[in-house]
Amino acid sequence: MNTLLLLAHPNLESSISNRRIIETISSLKDVEVHSLYNLYADKKIDVAAEQESLVKSDLIIFQFPMFWFSAPPILKTWQDQVLSPGFGFGAAQEDFKLKGKNLLLSITTGGKREKYHVGNSYNYTLDETLRPLQMMVNYCKMTYKGYIQSNGRPFTEKEDLDKEIINHTEKLIAFIKDF
Amino acid sequence: MNTLLLLAHPNLESSISNRRIIETISSLKDVEVHSLYNLYADKKIDVAAEQESLVKSDLIIFQFPMFWFSAPPILKTWQDQVLSPGFGFGAAQEDFKLKGKNLLLSITTGGKREKYHVGNSYNYTLDETLRPLQMMVNYCKMTYKGYIQSNGRPFTEKEDLDKEIINHTEKLIAFIKDF
């Protein structure tokens, strides 16, 4: 089984959680990691290369820090360009090149998971922030495998953060290995 | 009452709906229009200028074509940069500079409104695509004024499209004037 992980972190050098997660995941067998901001600093996505990697993959993972209840903008640039008509969707069945492939989300949030509920300043659940990505999965006839989430900076104490990152990474490794 | 409309269309020259809507809205009194892709072709947002315009506004409108169930990426770039700590939110009450301001969404979609439901290939409602923006509104202590939506290209016949655009524009003008 081949895994493609797309990382969307605008400043990986100053990242704590995402950088550590990625360093571990990159060493796994059969996992290809695309750090989108590093690969495409000029925001010009190599659409053909991305599509080729997708076609070879069984499991696709979007890894990102959540800012303003969604992914950093390059992931949207990637979606708008890579999931083109005739590849991501279309009039014919064969236009859905990602059909049956699996998508897992791997997310770090500033706000703790328990902050996401009605009555809080967010007023929606964490799951609800992911609707646009879930809809993309549905539209492309992929299979949604849910999400792994941990609480990153800036609201976490050092020790808690270590625990969060290790826990997140272990869950992600287990998911990939059991897949 | 001052209105600030942020337009996020990556290719306004080839747009039909958004261009016509904007041409009309731009001529209204007390409405400032920022076409983000035209102003910031290099993706470098003038944060100070954007914040200054926001502070002067009572009603803020996000106008965009919906691709992949969310806005084009520049609107996310704008959010991540302009709604900074101490302006969009923060530890103190005075850090919420947008508190009490109103946000309206003005959206064109390829898929018709009635396609957005459980059981369809989207499998969620149109309202649910907007959760991340609604959460931003909540988090910034703004007031959410809902959305105006019309069905743009490519799935609409010419005559229907004209009707949709006129209807959308009229609703938007009425909202701004009645505000």
Largest interface: A-B, 29 and 29 residues
Radius of gyration of chain A: 16 Å
Q: Please give the domain count of chain A.
A: 1
- Sketch the topology of chain A as an H/E string, one letter per element: EHEHHEHEHHEH
Strand-pairing-aware structural class of chain A = alpha/beta
Number of extended strands of chain A: 5
Outline of the structure:
2 copies of one chain form a homodimer. With about 180 residues, the first copy, chain A, is α/β, with parallel strands linked by helices.
Could you characterize the architecture of this molecule?
Chain A has 179 residues and is α/β, with parallel strands linked by helices. Chain A has one domain: Flavodoxin domain (Rossmann fold). Helices cover 38% and strands 20% of the residues of chain A. In chain A, helix 4 (73-82) links the parallel strand 3 and strand 4 (102-109). In chain A, helix 1 packs parallel to helix 7. Chain A is globular and about 50 Å long. Chain A starts with a strand and ends with a helix. The relative contact order of chain A is 0.18. Chains A and B meet through helix 4 and helix 6 of A and helix 4 and helix 6 of B.
Present the secondary structure layout.
The structure is a homodimer of 179-residue chains.
Chain A: E1 3-7, H1 17-26, E2 31-35, H2 36-39, H3 47-56, E3 59-66, H4 73-82, E4 102-109, H5 126-129, H6 131-139, E5 143-151, H7 158-178
Parallel strand pairs in A: 1-2, 1-3, 3-4, 4-5
